[in-house]
Amino acid sequence: MSEASVIDHGYEPSMKDYFDLLKPRVMSLVVFTALVGLLVAPVGVNPFVGFVSVLFIALGAGASGALNMWWDADIDAVMSRTVKRPIPSGRVAPGEALGIGIALSGLSVIMLALAANLLAAALLAFTIFFYAVVYSMWLKRSTPQNIVIGGAAGAFPPMIGWVVATGSVSVEAWLMFMLIFLWTPPHFWALALFMKEDYHKAGVPMLTVTAGHDATRRHIFVYSVLLAIFAVAMGFSSIGGPVFLATAVILNARFMLGCYRIWQRRTPEAQADDYAVERGVFRQSLWYTLLHFTALLADAALKGAGLWSGWV
């Protein structure tokens, strides 16, 4: 990371500045998916243990965000989407971000081990390492497959929640992992199609920069098909049910249709407009994981009320 592009205004950071450092929007998705992973598990968890476990998973996600912002401050400073983040805008010093990231990493992992179990803590530690080191420090600036491989970091939280409850990893945990893992590339590539210049200026080898728009469009559609297969398959697992299956069929049909329309567009014709199709698919993807995991909760509630016994 280069600190040359970080602005120093002599600004005194507020609590909001530090909170923004933790990527709260990303953290909210982490909290929700981890909570769902915990609640749909076949083993009940003491409410207090469940609450503090999700809290420490959230702190781990915040730690990852702080470390990512510290390392990527030079990139963030030249991208319009990220230039107002705490470090490039001069609201938080890079050294402070690094210190907060390291401190929260250690605290979250140790406390999760004490509150839940060692496997959950080990998975959280690996997730933080994967996002901060494997993705941010290595993959992001070295390969156009950065989002594909790096997407694993965002896919671990529901698995960690499951492990908090069960103490082990199962097929259901992997299905929740794959749902987020396969969703990540089309979500970010749709964004990259109409934000290509940002990544080009920052020197990030996003697929749109290295392979061009047409290859990216093809990749988006292929991943949407793979995503649909895993999503529907989860509907027939022990954590699935009629609500999830209906949700998966409807949402994935719409998502695949949008991705197919993206694939059918060709440059330079596609570059002549405002990327309305790509923007629409990106907006749709923002609700994708939220609605799928909400459907998992709905089916768990049906089973808890004795209204559904499950497929298996």
From TrEMBL:
Q: Which PANTHER family match?
A: 4-HYDROXYBENZOATE SOLANESYLTRANSFERASE, PROTOHEME IX FARNESYLTRANSFERASE, MITOCHONDRIAL
Where does it sit, as one GO cellular component term? plasma membrane
Q: What else is known?
A: Carbon 2 of the heme B porphyrin ring is defined according to the Fischer nomenclature.
Q: Which Gene3D superfamilies match?
A: UbiA prenyltransferase
Q: In which pathway does it act?
A: Porphyrin-containing compound metabolism; heme O biosynthesis; heme O from protoheme: step 1/1
Q: Name one GO biological process term.
A: heme O biosynthetic process
The record's section on Pfam families has: UbiA (PF01040)
Alphabetically sorted, this entry's keywords are:
Cell membrane, Heme biosynthesis, Membrane, Transferase, Transmembrane, Transmembrane helix
Localization annotation: Cell membrane
EC no.? Answer: 2.5.1.141
**Main function:** Converts heme B (protoheme IX) to heme O by substitution of the vinyl group on carbon 2 of heme B porphyrin ring with a hydroxyethyl farnesyl side group.
**Transmembrane regions:** 26-45, 51-71, 92-112, 118-139, 146-167, 173-194, 220-237
The UniProt subunit note reads as follows:
Interacts with CtaA.
GO molecular function ontology, one term from the record: protoheme IX farnesyltransferase activity
Which reaction equations make up its catalytic activity? Answer: heme b + (2E,6E)-farnesyl diphosphate + H2O = Fe(II)-heme o + diphosphate
What is the organism field in this record? Harenicola maris
What family classification does the UniProt entry report for this protein?
Belongs to the UbiA prenyltransferase family. Protoheme IX farnesyltransferase subfamily.
Membrane disposition: Multi-pass membrane protein
Top-level division of the source organism's lineage: Bacteria
Q: What is this protein called?
A: Protoheme IX farnesyltransferase
**Where does it primarily localize?**
membrane
